[in-house]
Amino acid sequence: MKRKRSCSETGSTSNGTSQVQFDVFLSFRGPDTRANFTDYLYHALLDKGIHVFIDKKGIDIGEEIGPEIFQAIDNSKICIPIFSRGYASSSWCLRELEHMVECRKTKELEVMPIFYDVEPSDVKLETKVYRDALTLHEQTRGVEIVQRWAAALKEVTGIKGWDTKNIGQGELTRLTARKVLVKLKVSSVHLSDYLVGIDQSVDEVIDLLSVESKDIRLVGICGIGGIGKTTLTKLIYYKLSINFENCCLLLDIRQASESASFGLLNLQRQLVHDILGDKRIKVSSIDQGKNLIEQRFSRKKVLIFLDDANHRGQLMALAAKKEWFGLGSRILVTT
Q1: Residue 300: which of 160, 178, 177, 172 has the closest Cα?
Q2: Which DSSP category does 278 fall into?
Q3: Rounded distance between C-alpha atoms, residue 120 and residue 161, angstroms
Q4: Could you say which of 9, 96, 144, 245 is catalytic?
Q5: For the chain, which ranges sit under pLDDT 50?
Q6: pLDDT tens-digit profile of 106-160?
Q7: How far apart are CA 71 and CA 2, in angstroms?
Q8: For the domain 191-334, what is the CATH code?
Q9: For the chain, percent helix, then strand, then coil, each to nearest 5?
Q10: CATH architecture for the domain at 5-181
């Protein structure tokens, strides 16, 4: 039996070979979480437009994990292992985890662990919960393989993750989906490999933004074209966005506004979709967009960067007043 995958995109071609690219790979033990937490998380991710690899059928007793599973991990940007009580009893889950840890070292794969009904100490093998399961695996898999699995379990506990101990499953799935969305946005920002003498400018603007402060701040960067404002903006966004659940980077506002009849409206749509995380929201006019931003953003702590604005009307449509945004919000405009 081949493992069945579920994904919301058909795939892309790389080097002549058709390969499906995934945003997220979910690793879990089916009997523990398939019909509850994993299902909730899967649909929360889909609702954000995130492409997810998830096994829909499981594996029969005695079957081995197929190479397509390792390929799915290779082709994913983020892997989320969901550690349940029975996770370590599955050699399948442990092989997935081992491969994730390898890819994290060699391909900069992001791993975001969730401790469903276990403690990090259990996964770290400081208790019998997972330790006993590994002892049983030694009888069929051998000591060397099990030692690799143990090392992977211990390593992943060093990554900051979530647990369900002090938070409801619904809220946790929502927070996880939002965090994944932010990470995907950040990873899509292209940064030049060779940047000389920019660190001081980055630090100065970050100091002005002061994300620890609870007030609302709008900061402007003004200068002639070609001096590096956009590069500076990308770097600051890359550094700060991890601190915000709701963030958006709008590049080339001047060009986008002038090159299409609905350019400014499309920018509003992107801003609304990025901050609210829902592409199903319709924005049919500039005035409706203003009202939506004012009504829906006013209780959210947002990070919004507006790059290359050159007209007052653009700011009026995207960030007219500080009162449109929640406490702790930061808006940066370059012009």
Answers
A1: 178
A2: -
A3: 9
A4: 96
A5: 1-18, 59-63
A6: 887 999 999 999 999 999 999 999 999 999 999 999 999 999 999 999 999 999 8
A7: 14
A8: 3.40.50.300
A9: 50, 15, 35
A10: 3-Layer(aba) Sandwich (3.40)
Question: Rounded CA gap, 282 and 220, in Å?
Answer: 30
- Alpha helices, DSSP H, located in the chain: 30-33, 37-47, 67-74, 91-106, 120-123, 128-141, 143-156, 169-187, 199-209, 229-240, 253-259, 263-276, 286-297, 312-318
Residue count of the chain, please give it. Answer: 335
- List residues bridging with 76 in a β-sheet: 22
Q: Name the pTM for this structure.
A: 0.69
Domain ranges of the chain: 5-181, 191-334
Residues 6+ away with beta carbon under 8 Å from 199: none
Instruction: Work out the end-to-end distance of the chain between its first and last CA atoms, rounded to an integer number of angstroms.
Output: 58
Separation between Cα atoms, residue 34 and residue 42, nearest integer Å:
10
Assess whether 245 carries a catalytic annotation. Answer: no
Q: Are 28 and 21 in contact (CB under 8 A)?
A: no
Cβ-Cβ contacts under 8 Å for 142 (sequence gap 6 or more):
none
- For residue 239 the two structure tokens come to 């550094």
And the tokens for 165? 């101990």
